[in-house]
Amino acid sequence: MITSVSVVIPTIGRESLDASIESVLNQDVRGIDLIVVVCPDRDMSFESLFVNDSRVLVLPTVRSAGGSFQRNRGMLAVPTDAVAFLDDDDVLSTDSLALRIQEMEKLASGTPLLICGQAQLALPNGQMTEAVPKVLHNSDKDVADYLFAKRSLNPTRNAIFTPTIMVNRQLADLVSWNVELPRHQDWDFVLACQAAGARIVQISHVVAHCAVGSNGSISASSDWLNSLTWVDSVGKNMSPRTSAGLLVSVPLRFALQARSLSGVRLVLVRLAKGRSWPSLSPLLVGLAGMIPRRSLEYAAGTFTRIKHFLKGSRTKNLR
């Protein structure tokens, strides 16, 4: 029985933080502890953090070490039965915690569990996607294969987003966020959970609304070297085809975005050593690095608008 849950929000002081906090405090769940972990070098107004609400705990970090350090501190701050994560530019849907707690209670107690769900993405052009991912992760399958083997440019592609993740206490005590990573922390955390024996279940409900490409977002940069270093560390635990898909869809794409010939060369060397060619869809993701990021985001928004228009037209025709 899950009687208590903590929600951890690492923050860099975005104006959207108030909305993130409010979305947690409005959850129809008892026993919530909201832990807001702030960087000590940020000039922030603490009046905005609902400090008069007994459910809110504001923790300053001892150093500005990034989101992973903040999440780890928040995860251990209150020994609740479950821990959920939220970013300071995202919000939870109204029944987000209740749905994931309900799913967690269905499964065997004592087993490390990661329960996640779908999200709706707010694109930079103002468009909102449908529920993503469209295809849910099968808990009996390898999560790396799900995420990387057939990674595509489609906004509804296979994904597990940080604001949709909830872990039970058994898993929270086994796995921490990698503080050495400047990016890919969410993927790394999910892979680490699987390696620790966790069962990863993705439910068919939108549990979070996430902003894409917010100011200060590390994921918007083209740091191919850090990505390649991370892929080198985790790719050895994947099937050759999945590792190849990850290589071309992430570090190759970033190297092309940065117009780095040395980066492209290093990725191709890794592919040659792995002796496996990726599927077509992740290869196309990698080659898309030759197209400016904003153009890709605009194309994704256009695709979403057309899809919504066609869906609306079909609905009218059925009436």
Descriptive report:
The chain has two domains: 5-211, Spore Coat Polysaccharide Biosynthesis Protein SpsA, Chain A; 221-293, no CATH class. It contains eleven helices and eight strands. The protein has helices at residues 17-25, 67-77, 96-106, 143-149, 169-172, 185-195, 224-234, 240-257, 261-274, 280-287, 293-318; strands spanning 5-11, 32-38, 56-60, 82-85, 91-92, 113-122, 166-168, 199-211. Helix 7 (224-234) packs antiparallel against helix 8 and helix 8 runs antiparallel to helix 9 (261-274). The longest helix is centred in the last third of the chain and has 26 residues, at 293-318.
CATH architecture of the largest domain: Alpha-Beta Complex
CATH C-level class of the largest domain is: Alpha Beta
Residue stretches low in confidence (pLDDT < 50, at least 5 long) are: 315-319
Class derived from helix and strand content: alpha/beta
Largest β-sheet summary: 8 strands, mixed
- With helices defined by DSSP (H or I, 4 residues minimum), what is the helix count? 11
Beta-strand share of residues:
15-25%
Number of strands: 8
Q: Give the termini separation.
A: 45 Å
Percent helix among the residues?
Answer: 40-55%
CATH fold name of the largest domain, please?
Spore Coat Polysaccharide Biosynthesis Protein SpsA, Chain A
Q: H/E series, N to C?
A: EHEEHEEHEHEHHEHHHHH
Give me the side-by-side strand order of the main sheet: 3-2-1-4-7-6-8-5
- Average pLDDT works out at 87
CATH superfamily of the largest domain: Spore Coat Polysaccharide Biosynthesis Protein SpsA, Chain A
Question: What spatial form do the alpha-carbon principal axes imply?
Answer: globular
Rg (C-alpha, Å): 20 Å
Return the domain count.
2
